[in-house]
Specification:
149 residues; four-stranded antiparallel β-sheet
Length: 149
Amino acid sequence: MRMSFPTVRFLVLVAVAALGVSFLPAAQASDPTVTAADKSAIRQVVQSQLDAFQKDDGAKAFSYASPSIHSIFESSDNFMSMVKSGYAPVYRPRNVQFGPLENIEGVPVQHVFLVGPDGLGVDALYYMEREPDGTWRINGCELKQGSSA
């Protein structure tokens, strides 16, 4: 059975949302304090993933995703297919402006304003996850309609 893009996108969003909710207690249990070094590292991870998308380097872009995102998409090819089809402003931004890092229920969320290839602005919320080794990974990205460029 072949599913249409809206159906696949909806299922991906439901899976990501379900996983995000299931991981929320663990994130709340961890120390929500984010240092200046953490803020810099988070910004670098997001920027590095955006740079990898610009170069069509799926393996590198996928390397910045959290283990739960890896388990959902299983391969960099699947991940890149989803990004290309559903996240054009992230895949090919015309402009990138980093906003504040916010703590939402114990989860650091990096705000990034992107102007997509269509000239429309979106606010991208990058949900971050600290790994056991202390590194930061992207655990989801939510796009909210912004203003036009």
